[in-house]
Amino acid sequence: xxxxxxxxxxxxxxxxxxxxxxxxxxxxxxxxxxxxxxxxxxxxxxxxxxxxxxxxxxxxxxxxxxxxxxxxxxxxxxxxxxxxxxxxxxxxxxxxxxxxxxxxxxxxxxxxxxxxxxxxxxxxxxxxxxxxxxxxxxxxxxxxxxxxxxxxxxxxxxxxxxxxxxxxxxxxxxxxxxxxxxxxxxxxxxxxxxxxxxxxxxxxxxxxxxxxxxxxxxxxxxxxxxxxxxxxxxxxxxxxxxxxxxxxxxxxxxxxxxxxxxxxxxxxxxxxxxxxxxxxxxxxxxxxxxxxxxxxxxxxxxxxxxxxxxxxxxxxxxxxxxxxxxxxxxxxxxxxxxxxxxxxxxxxxxxxxxxxxxxxxxxxxxxxxxxxxxxxxxxxxxxxxxxxxxxxxxxxxxxxxxxxxxxxxxxxxxxxxxxxxxxxxxxxxxxxxxxxxxxxxxxxxxxxxxxxxxxxxxxxxxxxxxxxxxxxxxxxxxxxxxxxxxxxxxxxxxxxxxxxxxxxxxxxxxxxxxxxxxxxxxxxxxxxxxxxxxxxxxxx
Amino acid sequence: xxxxxxxxxxxxxxxxxxxxxxxxxxxxxxxxxxxxxxxxxxxxxxxxxxxxxxxxxxxxxxxxxxxxxxxxxxxxxxxxxxxxxxxxxxxxxxxxxxxxxxxxxxxxxxxxxxxxxxxxxxxxxxxxxxxxxxxxxxxxxxxxxxxxxxxxxxxxxxxxxxxxxxxxxxxxxxxxxxxxxxxxxxxxxxxxxxxxxxxxxxxxxxxxxxxxxxxxxxxxxxxxxxxxxxxxxxxxxxxxxxxxxxxxxxxxxxxxxxxxxxxxxxxxxxxxxxxxxxxxxxxxxxxxxxxxxxxxxxxxxxxxxxxxxxxxxxxxxxxxxxxxxxxxxxxxxxxxxxxxxxxxxxxxxxxxxxxxxxxxxxxxxxxxxxxxxxxxxxxxxxxxxxxxxxxxxxxxxxxxxxxxxxxxxxxxxxxxxxxxxxxxxxxxxxxxxxxxxxxxxxxxxxxxxxxxxxxxxxxxxxxxxxxxxxxxxxxxxxxxxxxxxxxxxxxxxxxxxxxxxxxxxxxxxxxxxxxxxxxxxxxxxxxxxxxxxxxxxxxx
Lengths: 540, 540
Fold this sequence. Notes:
The structure is a homodimer of 540-residue chains. Chain A has helices at residues 2-9, 22-29, 57-66, 117-123, 127-138, 142-159, 214-232, 268-283, 287-300, 314-327, 334-339, 375-387, 430-448, 460-463, 486-490; strands at residues 11-16, 35-43, 47-54, 82-85, 103-108, 167-171, 185-190, 203-205, 236-242, 249-254, 259-265, 348-349, 353-354, 394-397, 402-405. With 540 residues, chain A is α+β, with helices and mostly antiparallel strands. In chain A, the strands form four sheets. Chain A has a five-stranded mixed sheet with strand order 4-1-3-2-5, sandwiched between helices. In chain A, strands 6-7-11-10-9 form a five-stranded mixed sheet, sandwiched between helices. In chain A, a hairpin with a 3-residue loop joins strand 12 and strand 13. The first copy, chain A, is globular. The interface between A and B is large, with 68 and 67 residues.
């Protein structure tokens, strides 16, 4: 987090004509400081940007001093890290061929899954490969992460004259390791990161006496900040103030970084929640691909959508995945992480919420017996686990790392990890819970009946209900056997045993020169799956 | 100006229990940097403040880092140069006796004329002494000037995150050398002091595209800034947005510096006008006492008041005094100052208004024959001059330094020095012009008939219609003769000759121990007046 914020402070974003400007831009910027990295990306077909990281903060200050405002009588001369590189008449064209510039990436994808995602999935070796591929192709990448921190920096910078300690931090999917390309940017604005006063200090800042209660004050402050960013900050548009929600937010688009943003205040638990999810993601390489696949499935099945309602949220889904992985002995309980915390891990958020847990995962003792299931096995088992889960009497507790008796009436009960008395999934109604279970059962069934798959929607494609258009119907050989017994899906037996899956199939299609993108000319090679014994215990 | 702004950047204002805290405060602050100067003042009977100037900007940064916010969950943690010095329990009381601290002034008067102003005037030696005394006791002093620049700095600082080049400059009476204690603080906010773009720079700041026309944009920006200062900035209260005036302004009180402020934008000619008035004030020591006296007279006679209307403004009155002094060969015409300007003096304000004139008065050639009239003579002559001025056909032009034919219909026409096509006194109606002339005539009459003065309202007291309450009626001896022939007042003769005034009087009163403030126990010593030949030419 602090590395990323520091990076953002040393970065500027510069609009250019195209990636070909990078040599000239590098040459120009190098007068002012040492260019560390350059990232190029596009918005639409026409807008090209280069994000430049400098070596030192003073390099950025030098760049700022050397940059100009134009038409100051018409435009508000706002200072921000967003610039454009103008063409000057009669400039000498230098020959930059073979010049070694630190352009890390050209045309970075910062927006959404690649257009040919389905074809990529189709070409994969196995479901596990598909999951890895889906994760790698849709997860937030380096350039995308930098743009998020730079967007936060813009807001922070503009308020720094009033609130010298102000911080604007990305939280949620942008930083928890589960972020997708194109996902919204959640930001939390803290006027002052240290709640504690310095009792040693005899000099106290004068502040404004406020007659408003806290909430009204927050709403008023957010209204003013919304007006500031709406009218002053370049690139920001469509500012909406949603100040009467439980957590008041300001929504806006930052068109230069192509991000939809939600800015809130006094939301420090969210920051620690992001840390927790990040840490769980770091503990095992299978965590994030599994989360990505489950979220994609839920979106395709319309179990989730972008609006709040009685359906499950991505956050709740993520907790379901983590909880499931705790049952598989892949992830430790939060209680375990809390027990291992030392004094450097102590974090108390607004409202005295204790967010203390072990941050340094190297201090986590190695489990004696590791679960070595592959991604496909874990995914299938995930669907089976939740299609059988007794939501009516059990609650999901990441703290305990096992199901607990439900503490209160609610269709689904997922304990908030930091405030176990709060239910993260309170919004879900019976109908949505039933849909979730049915779709999980269908998904499990799909993998069981994989033998019947058509070639153009095998594996995840089938799970997502996506078909590839092929000119020639591919031939699949050696279809896989059923992965699980059907009985496992429809009974509440305590133990579900997976059976060996022989996913030996090859597939080929003739290339058609007119439809190169859709042609498939690759031999699929069978992949051996290790036998996995899946055991699910419902602890009572 | 830049020296004052730099001083403000190195200053903080600290509320203390009383001036006795200065030793302890000095001791405490000296840990963080070198204290250059300390100024103490009070607001009302209870609020004590010490303004501290540090040696370096980094000292203030150190002070800021060492200062604390309290109750951050309730108060907005705004950073500003306004602090308070809290008492800590169990502190060790040090002995500060004889410690040499740079406390320049204790209980500086920053608000208004002293309570015993009339008594001070009463005790003066002569009308000229009264004028000097009035000027010295009511002019803006060092502490007051510093507070004005610090108040400007507060606004500037809070916007500096958005607009890195923003400047908030005092203008008008706070800086033109004609400022009175307690006068309003006029501020002009410039987003960017350099209107010209840097054509060499290839990097251009992104700015917000504005669909608004200029004026609507300025109003919107000022509305947002008004909300910022209203809600965030400590000490600021009673914010009023007057955005539909010809020059939109934000009015507010800064209660910590005890100032009523008017903030405007895009008002650069005002800054240069302040420079011009300042420069005229520097050219001769008699300029400012004369302006102060004329303004006080106008206020007492209700020729001016705090609200805009058909009456003459202080600014117009000031121009009348300067113009009159041009007629007396004491001040040069603006045309002369423009002719002497070199390339460093070139200033072009918003709207291409040329505000170029000589800034370095040492380059002004010495006049061969100096007018050496004393203040009393100049004052009397001022009244005579304007009671006879032909406002119906003549206009006042400081550029020409002489009356010009009136270019347009208007009761009174005073050319704006920088935009001679504009009439500064357009607002004055016939009735107010007549009142002005009548009161000027009465004032001249009063000095002519000074022989009849009562002891308790002699000189300026009489002019201001103020009487001293005395326990013992003082005895005046050797009353002055008439200063001017009465015919001079009531005829439009081209020449007015003053006659010798023998203002030889002595006055004494017994002190009464119960009314020390009102007792007079001083021998007035007659002051010789030089014979002055007053000659007024009406150039046609």
